[in-house]
What does this fold into?
Amino acid sequence: MLERIGARRLLLIAALAVAVLVGTVAATNLAPNTVYYLTPSEAKARNIPSKQIVRLGGQVKVGTLKVAFGSPGTASFSLVITDGVEDVLVIADGALPGLLREGAGAVVEGAFLPDGTFHADQVIAKHDEVYTAPTAGATPAHRTSFP
Amino acid sequence: MTETTIPRGNTLPRIRPWLGIAAAASFVVASVMALFWAPTDAVQGNVYRILYVHVPLAWLAYLAFVVVFLASVGWLWTKNPLFDAIAVSSAEIGVLFTGLFLVAGSIWAKPTWGVWWTWEPRLVTTAIMFVMYVGYLLLRGLSTDFSRRATRAAVFGIIAVIDVPIVHLSVLWANSLHQLPTVLRAGGAPALDSSMLLTLMVSLFAYTLIYAYFISARVSLERARQRRLWTQI
It folds into this structure.
């Protein structure tokens, strides 16, 4: 009977079975195991030690984005990342992303300092999935300029 | 061993020039709409317009890899060489489109996110998808025996398609930097203005015609190659 079905068709069935298996393993295991960034609450729950490189993600708390210019050519800025429950003060130096705004998302990469503030080597602004046209006649409130 | 006769078709070569003209014309219309007619985004300004290239290419790459899957099943089930021709053609176009939309996404990412690339879930799974289908094309170079090559590639094409839904769902499964789906999502209308959605749909139509034209030409080329090289398939 196996010969009548054909070796190639058996291979097809086997390949489909493997595909389903791989898909199921991926679907159940990828979600809890892939960590791109931790929210402030997750970072606090895991007790991340200082000096360990980690990424935090959350919202830039309104009223906390401060850009200060140091000696000529350098800029440092600070902001508070929040997930609505926990806040983390982030201090960064380096390029300020064009889309970084208060109330919008951001992902920062760096390490905690012993006093609980976060020193970020890289700050990435996050954009949500909504695209809106500006209201008639008005220019958009924020423009990104190409660096 | 498989059957020897590969019939010549002649409907497709006659409509292909018209398909090409339609693809080129709709591409021009879509590009004009994307660059000039669609409104600027209230937050991002004009840089968001690359959406009209990035998103259709991504959706068509998904489609191309699903076509590879279906053609692979077809080859294994029926041993008809046409299915192998369709599989390799669609894989090539899928790899091309994937490379293009990765570059387009990167161009968008630098002024908005602030980085050209980062290893976040959507980008990682897409990079894996790209590398896997490049591997599919390389795998085909391993054997000059037609049916062995086709069978090997078909098995790979069936397993590799699993990454396509993983790429789409990756932003929903883990904390990610890439935004959540704007159009292909459960619950809620597409989250963009109607004129933007119209431009996106016109762009999708144009790129679909481009895909159709490319695959038609490539399958025809592959069939000619099959006739020339494997007269004793």
Notes: The CA atoms of residues 21 and 136 of chain B lie 31 Å apart. Chain B touches chain A through 52 residues (CB under 8 Å). Helices of chain B lie at 12-37, 51-78, 81-112, 121-139, 146-160, 163-173, 194-229.
